């Protein structure tokens, strides 16, 4: 067995919020074979497992995780004409840079999304009118219930919707890789678009803070940040968790915040928005170990 399994690992360093307790077991997988090995280990031990990638869209419980955290670090990337094949652990900003560098359009938005290909497929990440679903051709996954056999999903089978996919309803499936079909354009045009998106993002969102992106999905008519604003909650805080004054749908760990602080702030904001605007906000952030 080439897989290294560690015991009692604090999860906070593996998240952009820098929050979270200890995982009983933890493994980093650098190849697809190691991912399958980790899945088999969890199956044999009848142990719960959770997939962690960039850790940029998760709130990990202060109590940590009872089971094994499988961290995806597979990094193979191939660009063949307009077809891009990427393992799940490849970083989205890197993918944006590589594809625009080849004069390929469709993933420019990834420059401002500090996660991985696996995380982007799972949550159909997007920004500035681009979404992962628009460029995914197929996705390879591993599933415990089929004896860790690998299955290929077409775009349609992924059931993509706004910040949603079939993978959110099957949290035990592991995304191994994805194939994207991009559009050809000049390298200059692609890179210009990407840099404009990055500039917009760094100007309007708290990119240098300890955050996890948008806490809530945007309801159909009004963006979540505006509802939070209308409820008078911009800058509100609980313990060391604070609603960003720059972008009200980002919550910041101002230093030493706990998952309990974040959970309390999320509940407070949901209640206030419901009370003042009559709209029920739905979390985009994923909860681990609660
Ligand atoms: C500063 C900042 C800006 C952001 N901007 C954006 C934005 O513009 N648009 C946007 O959509 N998001 C944005 N986000 C949120 C986040 O970066 C995205 O949701 C990203 O796609 C999450 O990827 P990840 O690899 O970090 O996933 P993680 O946070 O590690 O995991 C998120 C969820 O995906 C699941 N998952 C991850 N990888 C796999 C896999 N291989 N197989 C199965 N399940 C998997 C996890 O189990 C978990 O439930 C931002 C976050 C930050 C901190």
TrEMBL record:
Entries under Gene3D superfamilies matching the protein: 3.30.465.10, UDP-N-acetylenolpyruvoylglucosamine reductase, C-terminal domain, Uridine Diphospho-n-acetylenolpyruvylglucosamine Reductase, domain 2
Any matching Pfam family: FAD_binding_4
Entry's Gene Ontology cellular component terms: cytosol
Catalytic activity from the UniProt record: UDP-N-acetyl-alpha-D-muramate + NADP(+) = UDP-N-acetyl-3-O-(1-carboxyvinyl)-alpha-D-glucosamine + NADPH + H(+)
Domain FAD-binding PCMH-type: 18-185
Catalytic site positions: 163, 214 (proton donor), 284
Domain of life the protein comes from: Bacteria
SUPFAM superfamilies: FAD-binding/transporter-associated domain-like (SSF56176), Uridine diphospho-N-Acetylenolpyruvylglucosamine reductase, MurB, C-terminal domain (SSF56194)
Keywords from the UniProt entry: Cell cycle, Cell division, Cell shape, Cell wall biogenesis/degradation, Cytoplasm, FAD, Flavoprotein, NADP, Oxidoreductase, Peptidoglycan synthesis
PROSITE patterns: FAD_PCMH
Enzyme class (EC, first level): oxidoreductase
Role summary: Cell wall formation.
EC number: 1.3.1.98
Keyword Cytoplasm among UniProt keywords: yes
Pathway participation: Cell wall biogenesis; peptidoglycan biosynthesis
Broad class of the protein's primary localization: cytoplasm
Name the record gives this protein: UDP-N-acetylenolpyruvoylglucosamine reductase
Cofactors: FAD
Any one GO biological process: cell wall organization
Family: Belongs to the MurB family.
Keyword check for NADP: yes
Residues in coiled coil: none
Compartment(s) where it occurs, according to its Swiss-Prot or TrEMBL record: Cytoplasm
């Amino acid at each position: 067995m080439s897989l290294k399994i560690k015991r009692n690992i604090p999860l906070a360093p593996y998240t952009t919020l820098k929050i979270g307790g200890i995982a009983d077991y933890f493994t980093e997988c650098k190849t697809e074979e190691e991912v399958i090995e980790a899945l088999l280990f969890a199956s044999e031990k009848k142990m719960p497992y959770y997939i962690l990638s960039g850790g940029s869209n998760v709130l990990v419980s202060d109590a940590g995780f009872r089971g094994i955290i499988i961290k995806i670090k597979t990094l193979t990337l191939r660009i063949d004409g307009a077809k891009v094949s990427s393992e799940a652990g490849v970083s989205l900003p890197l993918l944006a840079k590589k594809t625009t560098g080849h004069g390929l359009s469709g993933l420019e938005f990834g420059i401002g999304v500090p996660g991985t290909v696996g995380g982007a497929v799972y949550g159909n990440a997007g920004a500035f009118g681009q979404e992962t679903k628009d460029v995914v051709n197929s996705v390879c996954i591993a599933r415990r219930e089929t004896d860790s056999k690998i299955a290929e999903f077409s775009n349609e089978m992924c059931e993509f919707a706004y910040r949603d996919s079939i993978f959110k309803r099957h949290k035990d499936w592991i995304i191994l890789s994805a194939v994207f079909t991009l559009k050809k354009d000049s390298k200059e045009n692609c890179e210009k678009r990407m840099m404009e998106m990055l500039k917009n993002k760094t100007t309007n969102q708290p990119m240098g803070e300890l955050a996890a992106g948008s806490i809530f999905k945007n309801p159909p008519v009004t963006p979540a940040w505006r509802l939070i604003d209308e409820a008078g909650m911009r800058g509100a805080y609980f313990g060391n968790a604070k609603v960003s004054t720059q972008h009200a749908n980002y919550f910041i760990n101002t230093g030493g915040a706990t998952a309990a602080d974040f959970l309390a702030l999320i509940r407070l904001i949901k209640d206030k928005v419901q009370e003042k605007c009559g709209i029920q906000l739905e979390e985009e952030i994923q909860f681990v170990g609660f």
